[in-house]
Design goal:
The structure is a homodimer of 181-residue chains.
Chain A lengths: L2 H10 L5 H9 L11 H14 L2 E6 L7 E6 L1 H12 L6 E3 L1 H7 L6 H23 L8 H32 L10
Antiparallel strand pairs in A: 1-2
Helix pairs in contact in A: 1-3, 1-4, 2-3, 6-7
Chain A binds a DNA duplex (30 and 30 nucleotides) through helix 3.
Chain lengths: 181, 181
DNA sequence: TAATCATATATCGGATCGATATAGGAGTCA
DNA sequence: TGACTCCTATATCGATCCGATATATGATTA
């Protein structure tokens, strides 16, 4: 989904600055909707403002640039709803870790073991964060997204933990064969 | 992972044309390593050739452009191994579908039901493709990647099937609350 | 027979990304 | 107490990526 649409999504939940939008994109459910950082967010907000989808309120600050608080407009709300009503694109899952594992025969087993252990920790941390959320007051949609994430990341952790040792043990003597699919 | 590195990865498995590389990126395990299409692949191959990481053999064809077959060089192989030896970046999962579900209160329940049903079908198809692979002759890495995918996509299918009805039933009367995390 | 898909090579305009710039306040640690 | 790191704010820019488009023939399907 393009950055402007996801920014509009954040603003349907309440007014926000570019900096606050980036925080939303880094943590919580929005990290599963977009990857955008400042390089994309500020240009997107500028464009949304130009299109009339958001309004801007600047609050002076003492020793920092003026705080720019964005609010969604009715036109912006309609644009966001129209975007979510369109058939969603394919889910995307991309993993540098799986690429490294796929080519494990090029790497020493200790490096594979380390990579798997770090990825187990990474998934555990993501899973614990999802599990520790207080979902009281949430709608059906956010609850569903949180639980979907728990199911998928839980399966990832479980698989990695259960198969770590057999991968590491066989990684050192796997013949360099081509994978065919 | 950048497009050039993944192209080198394909070429460690055997010589290939740009068109063949794109097919590798669309199907099989490489679809979980990169999203690149022609717009990225041809420029990447051109740059890899300029850097001496690949060589090029052109085969004349009757009524089509000459077939350009790329081969990895020892320098390219070293570059690829070095790239996979670096600490892999975070796994990335992005879903337009989950964004739509998160904001389900903006959509009619029948649209939510349709989106969930289509996504169930999509994950089932991906899962069936992974399961139907003939893994004989594969190394430990490719088998691990295939099984990881099955575990994760299997969990996704299971969750969607088990929770589809309760989402759709509550989607029509969810109060428009803010999700907090 | 027409439409669609496959096989081939590519480019381009627009979007995105990650580093960088500027800068002060708060918290941590030796 | 000072250095370092993190947080809070605004942004830009060069490089990379993306998806549509171009060209064109053969194979397959309805």
């Amino acid at each position: 989904m393009d950055v402007r649409t996801v920014c509009l999504g954040v603003l349907t939940l309440g007014d926000a600055t570019g900096y606050e939008i980036r925080k939303m994109f880094e943590e919580g459910p929005f990290q599963y909707f977009t990857d955008a950082g400042f390089g994309s967010i500020y240009p997107a907000l500028k464009k949304l403002h130009g299109e009339g989808y958001v309004t801007l309120h600047e609050q002076a600050q003492d020793s920092r640039p003026d705080k720019k608080v964005y609010s969604i407009t009715p036109a912006g709300h309609e644009a966001f709803t129209a975007a979510t009503a369109r058939a969603p694109g394919a889910d995307k899952f991309r993993s540098d870790f799986l690429l490294a594992v796929f080519f494990e025969h090029f790497l020493p087993p200790n490096m594979i073991a380390k990579a798997v252990d770090e990825r187990i920790g990474w998934y555990r941390e993501k899973l614990e964060h999802m599990q520790s959320c207080d979902r009281s007051g949430w709608g059906a949609g956010p609850v569903f997204v949180n639980q979907f994430g728990q199911a998928v990341y839980g399966a990832a952790v479980k698989f990695l933990e259960e198969n770590r040792d057999s991968l590491v043990e066989s990684a050192g003597d796997t013949p360099k064969t081509e994978a065919a699919e």
